[in-house]
């Protein structure tokens, strides 16, 4: 069982930056592939980024590639999402998710992930 708690969301102007954190419980955190998803009002939850268990492989949605960076600190049981050059269309609730142990970073479907956080709101004003 893994419990995930996101933090770091907020209101930012277009062009600004935010760093989201996701703190995980459980001694097996370091084995899980971790992902970030987001859901805007009236839209489906969509994949944003993922990182494999070691941090050696990452994968991004085309819409955030070059602007967002996913990373992890297994010693702190935490995964991060650094978001730069934010746009109004990045406004959404952002969710952290834990997938299968030793999964690959190209796991982009909601069904690939077993555990979810409660989400943190990111609002980008124009």
Characterise this structure.
With 126 residues, this protein is mostly beta strands. 0% of the residues lie in helices and 51% in strands. The chain contains no helices and eleven strands. Strands 2, 4, 5, 6, 9, 10 and 11 form a seven-stranded mixed β-sheet that branches. A four-stranded antiparallel β-sheet has the order 1-3-8-7, with no helix packed on it. Strand 5 (46-51) and strand 6 (58-60) form a beta hairpin. It is globular. The mean pLDDT is 95.
Descriptive keywords:
mainly beta; 126 residues
What does the secondary structure layout of this molecule look like, with pairings?
Layout: E1 4-7, E2 10-13, E3 18-24, E4 32-39, E5 46-51, E6 58-60, E7 68-73, E8 78-83, E9 92-101, E10 113-116, E11 120-125
Parallel strand pairs: 2-11
Antiparallel strand pairs: 1-3, 3-8, 4-5, 4-9, 5-6, 7-8, 9-10, 9-11
In short:
The chain is 0% helix and 51% strand. It is mainly beta and 126 residues long.
Inertia-based shape? globular
State Rg.
13 Å
Low-confidence stretches: none
Overall strand count: 11
Biggest β-sheet, characterized?
Answer: 7 strands, mixed
Count of discrete alpha- or pi-helical segments spanning 4 or more residues: 0
Secondary-structure-based class equals mainly beta
- The portion of residues forming beta strands comes to over 45%
End-to-end Cα distance: 40 Å
Mean pLDDT value: 95
Topology as H/E string?
A: EEEEEEEEEEE
Q: What share of the residues lie within helices?
A: under 10%
């Amino acid at each position: 069982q893994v419990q995930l708690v996101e933090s770091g969301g907020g209101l930012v102007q277009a062009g600004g930056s935010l760093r989201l954190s996701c703190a995980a419980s459980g001694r097996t955190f370091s084995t899980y592939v971790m992902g970030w998803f987001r859901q805007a009002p009236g839209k489906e939850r969509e994949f944003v980024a993922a990182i494999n268990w070691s941090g050696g492989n990452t994968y991004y949605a085309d819409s955030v590639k070059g602007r967002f960076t996913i990373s992890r600190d297994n010693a702190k049981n935490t995964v991060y999402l650094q978001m730069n050059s934010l746009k109004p269309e990045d406004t959404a609730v952002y969710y952290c998710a834990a997938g299968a142990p030793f999964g690959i970073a190209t796991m982009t479907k909601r069904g690939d992930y077993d555990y979810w956080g409660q989400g943190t709101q990111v609002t980008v004003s124009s």
